[in-house]
Specification:
It is a single chain. By secondary structure, the protein is mostly helical. It has 3 helices and no strands.
Length: 82
Amino acid sequence: DDDKMPPLQDWNIRDIVHQSTLSPSPDVLDNTAEIIVLHGYVTMFIVVFPLMPLLGVVSNFVELFVDKYNLQNTQRPMPTAA
């Protein structure tokens, strides 16, 4: 089974080259801020528009698929200290 996988160093180099060809990832803090603002709008406007929570859920699902696409097709986010 070990002869089927390439050596670990070759895989790392190929992954680094692949990651370097992808576009930079969007900022994680911006994505979090979008969700917080969305929940704020839902809370503020629920009295005026009772269907707002339903629109919030739909928006969350759309955001989920957009974030999934971004994570799969952009560079990995750079880890930073808190």
